[in-house]
Amino acid sequence: MLQQLFGSKPVHCAGPAPAAGAHGEVHDLSYYLKCMAGGVFACGLTHTAVVPIDIVKCRLQADPTKLKGMGDAYRALNASGKSWMTLGWLPTFIGYSFQGMAKFGFYEVFKDLYGGVTESLLGADKAYSFRTLTYALSSASAEFFADILLCPFEAVKVRIQTSPEGTFPTTFGPAWNKVSANEGINGFYKGITPLWCRQIPYTIMKFVVFERTVEFIFKNILHATRDDYGKKFNLGITFLSGYIAGVVCALVSHPADTLFTAYNKKQTEGAFMEEIKKIYAGMPAGGLWKGLIPRIIMIGTLTGLQWWLYDTWKTWWGLKPTGSTGPKK
């Protein structure tokens, strides 16, 4: 697909700075494949590493009337033994590896594609003023496809992590087979709409806030560009900007995340919106925001590490870290 889009020759990015590919950089198929591999590395490892926090968050969201806070959720889980800390780790690793591949890799593709169209229509200076819109559209487009890859694994993960003990398999293979046998394709994709509602706003914030935070730090605080500093310093700025973006992501996407967790927890038969209305009506006051604190901790750390790992991977290959400053000259 990428070969058909961009051909066999290198693509000169015409996108607005500070997008990757500015300043005359050349992006070919090899570049995009490296970015996709970096996304696998960044998302698969980090999401798997925070599985224990994710389980606490999911339990709070799934049983808001029984569990009043992180302490209650932790004590309830801990009573069943230490094995709970790895529940759902394999579907998490596989699903978020696929998602990371599309999220980061396709973002680079769409950023160059949309940026090139904008510049060809409006010119370089005008295109630069629309860079935030380019980041938003590119990340939304990438996440749309990323969620299609993620959804089946996320559905299985949620069921493993939130089902009462003894009612659902706790390992990936049997859990996948049970969903497939009992619900078919609907069991894997019934949550795609709430997943899009959760992940697309989340990813827009993740990329837009990151890109603009990097730009703000270098332009308004350091009065320099990434090229003026070494690799270690640049990766430090990457982590800081990623963490800030992660906190914003958690706040924006948490209500949809709560509904997604509750929706995937049980077998549903009615129309999507009717089921969502029932779930919301059954929640206590503030139920949509249950699990927010662990999610802020999880997503802030997660996003900072993802960006750090992704840019570490890019710089290891001799590519520039994500985000720079100033319009193309």
Automatic annotation (TrEMBL):
UniProt entry keywords in alphabetical sequence:
Membrane, Mitochondrion, Mitochondrion inner membrane, Repeat, Transmembrane, Transmembrane helix, Transport
Signal peptide extent: none
Span-the-membrane segments of this chain are: 233-253, 292-310
Q: Which InterPro entries match?
A: MCP_dom_sf, MCP_transmembrane, SLC25A3/Pic2/Mir1-like
**Membrane topology recorded in Swiss-Prot or TrEMBL:** Multi-pass membrane protein
Q: Which GO terms describe its molecular function?
A: phosphate transmembrane transporter activity
Q: Which domain of life is it from?
A: Eukaryota
- Subcellular location field: Mitochondrion inner membrane
One of its GO biological process terms is: mitochondrial phosphate ion transmembrane transport
A GO cellular-component term linked to this record: mitochondrial inner membrane
Query: In residue terms, where are the Solcar repeats?
Result: 30-113, 130-216, 233-316
Family listed? Belongs to the mitochondrial carrier (TC 2.A.29) family.
PANTHER family linked? SOLUTE CARRIER FAMILY 25 (MITOCHONDRIAL CARRIER PHOSPHATE CARRIER), MEMBER 3, LIKE-RELATED-RELATED (PTHR45671), SOLUTE CARRIER FAMILY 25 MEMBER 3 (PTHR45671:SF10)
Protein's name in the database: Uncharacterized protein
Origin species: Blepharisma stoltei
